[in-house]
Amino acid sequence: MSDDTIRLVTIGRIIRRRWRLLTVLAVVGALVGYGTSLLFPPRYTTSASVLLPGAWEERELLTQAEIATSSVVVDRAAATLGWTGVSGSELRDRVSAKATDGNIIKISGTADTPERAQRLADQVAQQFVAFAARLAGDDTESAASTGPEALRKMVVQTSRRITELADAADPGRTVESVQGRTELEKLRIALQEAVKKLDEADPVTNKSNMVVMGQAARPAGEAPPTRTQLIVAGALLFFLLAVIGQLTAARMSRRLRTEPEIAAALGSALLGTVDVPGERPAHRPEGSGPRARFRRLLGLDVRWDIPTPRASGDEAGRLIRYRRVCARLRDRLPAPRRLLVVVPEGDEIARRAAEQLVAESRGDRSPTSSGSGYPVLRVVEVSVSQPLVPDRGTESGALVVLSAGSWTADELTGIAEACADGKHEVVGIVVAGAVRARTKRSAGHPPDDAAPALAVPGHAAGGAG
User: Fold this and answer.
1) 3-state secondary structure of 401
2) Domain count of the chain?
3) For residue 185, how far is the Cα from the chain centroid?
4) Gap between the Cα atoms of 368 and 328, Å rounded
5) For all residues of the chain together, what is the average pLDDT?
6) 444 is a domain residue
7) Strands 310-311 and 426-436
8) How many Å from the N-terminal Cα to the C-terminal Cα in the chain?
9) Which residues lie within the region annotated Disordered (predicted)?
10) Is 301 a member of any domain?
11) Is residue 328 assigned to a domain?
């Protein structure tokens, strides 16, 4: 799988063949998420809105949002709330503010109960409004607040004086008097317009009158992440990690999957491929220990990275493949010989294929022109960790039968070296593959050329057949 593209069918195969392991890991992840939720108490968040009347620029609104979460405002709120063990520095981590559309500052407070969250947001909003009013001078008699009012009084007095001067002037008798009255009227109009503009642009009266838009709503649910979210996130995280781990392990696998790679590792020629019918997945190692039972329980004894077996043809077609292999093996040998059929230990598909080859070789009824028949075969299973092949005796040669995608190059090289140590030449290789058997045929006479199925005893390494 190292060069294959990861597709949805691959993910589906992992889920289908590793569903027990994935379920167990998802449950473990959910328990981890639940434990995490116990370490972090629930949090509740609510917000209070403060309206800023007048015209404000964006940077001014950002400044006001920073003021709302400043240490001065939060410390005053903490002092007013008087919560035991909660200081202003701790509250600053629970308070946030942001400017929204419509000149509104939204102040959010987070606490361990809905009531405390509501009180915190309301108190910070009130302290912010009070602090902003103090900065603007609403609660002082500063010159900034008294100056505009004094200026208005002076404008009124000046307007009256202008009227008196205009009345005292000689109305309409001379050109100079008419021009004087006109200039005085223009001056009075200009003063009134200036006062009007001053009222419209007065930052004290327009920008300092901030309003808290009602009490903060009491939160009805926890702030994220909630306990349910942590449990679901833990289960999903462990599930994804398990899938990614399976994909990574398959991509890093060094098992040989192609026939040329297998032939190169064993140093011999490929005689053909044969099919083994059956619904059981390939390469299911047997065992009776606790570890083997645990692997069977989680489904780890079944390889997921082996493609789904293709549909099988009829029995006659499968038997033809076995006979062709036996014929090629006969043609490669100068005379009928006895051969060892070497099968890697634990390769169930290869073992069944080897047994069928033995049955076909014993049922040979088609002698050649020279009178020679199929070689006599005996099956031996060889451990891939410590390969040991019986020494050359009545058998002089080895036929290796194995399934693709189950063994690495080093393991196959070890089997070839074990054959060489036993003075056996590897005369050929047969690759076995699992197929889905069709429905059984109705009862009837088997074909005349069908070989009987024979049980081959003694599959242990070095056993007699």
Assistant:
1) strand
2) 3
3) 80
4) 13
5) 80
6) no
7) parallel
8) 37
9) 440-465
10) yes
11) yes
Lowest mean pLDDT: which of 27-31, 258-262, 442-446? Answer: 442-446
For residue 386, being part of any structural domain is answered with: yes
User: Does residue 111 share a domain with residue 15?
Assistant: no
**235 and 362 fall within a common domain:** no
Q: How far apart are CA 151 and CA 73, in angstroms?
A: 34
Please check whether residue 390 is in contact with residue 340, taking contact to mean a CB–CB distance below 8 angstroms. yes
Report the CATH number at residue 147. 3.30.1890
Assign 65 a pLDDT band (cuts: 50, 70, 90).
Answer: very high
Q: What are phi and psi of 93, to 5 degrees?
A: -75, -15
356: nearest Cα among 325, 387, 328: 325
Distance, CA of 454 to CA of 445 (rounded, Å): 18
**pLDDT above 80: residue 73:** yes
Q: Identify the CATH number of the domain in which residue 276 sits.
A: 3.40.50
If you search the block for the tokens 């059929």, which residue do you land on? 341
437 neighbors 306 (Cβ within 8 angstroms): no
List the domain range (segments joined by +) for residue 311.
259-436
pLDDT at 366 over 80: no
Q: Is 248 helix (H, G, I), strand (E, B) or coil?
A: helix
Angle 68-71-74 from CA coordinates, rounded to 5°: 60
Report residue 164 CA to chain centroid gap: 87
Query: Do residue 245 and residue 305 come from a single domain?
Result: no
Q: Closest by alpha carbon to 52, among 108, 119, 128?
A: 128
pTM value is 0.57
**Helix 143-168 and helix 175-200, axial crossing angle in degrees, nearest 10:** 160
Q: Say whether both 55 and 198 belong to one domain.
A: yes
Please, which pLDDT band fits residue 237 given cuts at 50, 70 and 90?
Answer: very high
Q: What is the dihedral of CA 121, 124, 130, 133, to 10 degrees?
A: -90
Nearest 5°: CA angle at 136, between 155 and 213?
A: 115
Residue 82 burial (C-beta neighbours within 10 Å; 0-12, 13-18, 19+): exposed
